[in-house]
Design brief:
- This protein is an alpha+beta fold.
- The chain has two domains: 3-269, 3-Layer(aba) Sandwich (Rossmann fold); 366-577, Galactose-binding domain-like (Jelly Rolls).
- 18% of the residues lie in helices and 29% in strands.
- It contains twelve helices and 28 strands.
- The chain has helices spanning 95-104, 122-127, 152-166, 182-193, 210-215, 224-231, 243-249, 255-258, 283-292, 307-312, 314-328, 458-464; strands at residues 8-10, 28-32, 49-58, 64-72, 78-82, 131-136, 171-180, 198-204, 239-241, 271-276, 298-303, 341-345, 353-358, 366-374, 379-381, 389-394, 401-407, 412-416, 419-427, 433-441, 450-451, 472-473, 476-481, 513-518, 522-526, 531-537, 559-564, 571-577.
- The strands form five sheets. The chain has an eleven-stranded mixed β-sheet with strand order 2-3-4-6-5-7-8-10-11-12-13, with helices on both faces. Strands 14, 15, 16, 18, 19, 24, 25, 27 and 28 form a nine-stranded antiparallel β-sheet that branches.
- Strand 14 and strand 15 form a beta hairpin.
- Helix 3 crosses helix 4 (182-193).
Length: 579
Amino acid sequence: MSEGLKIYTASQPLPPGRSGMLTAFGPGTQTLEAGFQIAPQFLPLPVDIVFEKDVAVTLRDGVTIYVDVFRPAGTKKVPVIVAWSPYGKGQGTSMSVMGVFGLVGLSNAAVSGLEKFEAPDPAYWCAQGYAICNPDIRGVIDSDGNSVLWDRQEGRDCYDVVEWLAEQEWCSGKVGMSGTSYLAVSQWFTAAEQPPHLAAINPWEGVSDVYRDLVMRGGMPDTGFAKQLQDGSFFGKNEKEDILAEVERYPQINKLWENKIPEFEKITVPAYVVASYSNTLHTAGTFRAWRRIASESKWLRIHNGQEWPDYYDEVNVEDLRRFFDHYLKNEENGWEETPCVRYSVLDLQGGDQVGLAADSFPPKDVTSTKYYLDGPTRTLATEVPGAQLSTAYDVASNPNAVSFITRFDKETVMVGYPKANLWVEARGSDDMDLFVLVQKLDAWGTPLQAFTVPNQSAIAHDLTDHGATILRYKGSDGRLRVSARNLDEALSTEDVPAHTFDRVEKLAPEQIVNVEIELLPIGLAFHAGEQLRFIISSANLLGTLMPGIREYVGANAGQHVIHTGGEHASYLQLPIQNV
């Protein structure tokens, strides 16, 4: 078991900026009448809502946590949707959450303020005949115990809450889950525990492997966001898991990290999964979980923006309601005729296509095509260069990168999983941190990018010129520490390499090694004359995923050599759709 490997540190009280109008502990029940506004900037309630605050729930190990329940007034039994996260259940009106809405350009009037951060809004769902349960999870705010971060323990805890909810006199016995980011991840863990009354889940972008997605992507200790998550959440009165200390002590995969991967094969509940191409934290994990869960009834929708505006978009909320109406209310509404995959193709010039139907992802009309790197000409071509030559850069120089370009003479669409297969050598070092990026250029060579959020202000430009990748999409990226190159033969596919991360294989002088690098899934259209640029660098090409967090700097020295052609034919593999 992994519990003995965990490291804990003291929690801190909830700071004022994270406190909302409903944060203060105060068990009791009241009815919020239609028209009620918790504050003037928020949406009025469309119906009467019964609000049960700080209801005690005892978990299987005796720990007591507290939940808030919002349910429609009346005596009719209703299903309930759970929003499981460490973000305090009363934070919907906090300065922190309102600040996030401002960052992405969402109006606070889109929600009632009763919702948890990244969670379903009771104002809408109660009006549609659902209850919402907002827990303060183990160790958070007033709940007892020590908190953990994305862990199978959370699955067991949420199992207990799901089954407790199903027994309440107002509940129909059907329970669902919904939410983005942390609230998506918790659904993988809960569904894997198979609580009998969990009838459907809706993971809306989230990691599915803490090691590979959060703290050691590509085998690099990039813990800037993990620090923000640990320090900026899990406020409580006891202790919280210190994932920063854990990654320092356990840099390779072990039982602790394995315990932070859901048992995908045990997830059999109907699932409506939402993903994007652009979230450098969530994208790989969401697609991985979609591929691996065992649910026979599962749907994937890939949108073209950022998760928060997408989650609260009225059309998307109605779409989700049809899913829950079918599985939580047993309504025969035709949901099962919904295409199992709806994907988007980005244009980066305002011509995105969304809601494209397919039976799989990638669609069946996609062919993985190798584009070989040519060192002397710095081009990409579908034929192997005859000459075996190399190109190199000094990691301390400017530029500390090399790139390769191809121009498309006809409409070219890519949908699926890119990867890089490179032959590399380190001079003056025994290791390499490699960062790669697939970038779209217009016909004149100008890089194309697109905001993923409604906020496109001067401040948004400042934040995203380097970093804040969740706000602006610049292409499909990947990374790998070369000493972590060992492939996991059981998990790797022809399109998606996976690494074991259980060993360190340093480079010897003059040793040339082959590495496969996973890039984020892509949906991208190139018009005739437009170009694709593939960049290899020793530096983080995109910066951080959120503003204000610590940026990882590659652990590099000396010179990186990229071999091309002949026996060392490095290539970029792209999913080309037959159009």
